[in-house]
Q: What sequence folds into this?
């Protein structure tokens, strides 16, 4: 496996680019099927989901729109547990079908906060789509309809995910290697 060093940490490839592309196409096909006849608003959570959201949108064949929201709950390799909205939602969500696009769902607290915030704007429905999910970390019940990969509780980067803002541009997903 290919290893890289980012700052003080070593990572190795855990999900290669070809596998990511295959799963993105599969998730898009599910959305195309489930959302046929609708014009969903993809609400991508920055910064981590921007690559996934772009690739996903290019595979969606039904009419759709995209917007971005920025929430922060991370510092380094650990979640701060405190979520603050940095950039809000400008669109009128009344009667809209909204699909939240996330890079990774761990505790679920960020998504829960987003759903609560979106719910006050009277959408027709809210759906969740994530590139990665860590099922063993989930702290709140969520109906995550679209999941590209379920992964163990490892720290990862690449394909939009970062370590201290580094590594987002990597085409593969890498897992932190514990140094001996």
A:
């Amino acid at each position: 496996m290919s290893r890289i060093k980012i700052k003080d940490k070593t990572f190795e490839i855990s999900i290669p680019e070809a596998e990511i592309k295959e799963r993105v196409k599969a998730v898009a096909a599910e959305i195309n099927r489930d959302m046929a006849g609708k014009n969903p608003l993809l609400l991508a959570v920055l910064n981590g989901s921007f690559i996934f959201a772009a690739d996903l949108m290019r595979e969606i064949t039904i009419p759709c729109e995209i917007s971005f929201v920025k929430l922060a709950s991370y510092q380094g390799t650990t979640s701060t547990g405190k979520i603050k909205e940095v950039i809000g939602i400008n669109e009128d969500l009344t009667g809209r079908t909204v699909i939240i696009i996330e890079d990774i769902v761990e505790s679920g607290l960020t998504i829960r906060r987003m759903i609560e915030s979106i719910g006050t704007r009277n959408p027709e429905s809210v759906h969740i789509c994530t590139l990665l999910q860590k099922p063993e970390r989930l702290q709140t019940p969520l109906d995550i309809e679209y999941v590209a990969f379920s992964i163990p509780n490892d720290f990862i980067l690449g394909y939009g995910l970062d370590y201290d803002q580094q590594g987002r541009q990597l085409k593969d997903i890498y897992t932190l290697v514990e140094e001996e």
In short: The helical segments are 17-34, 50-59, 109-119.
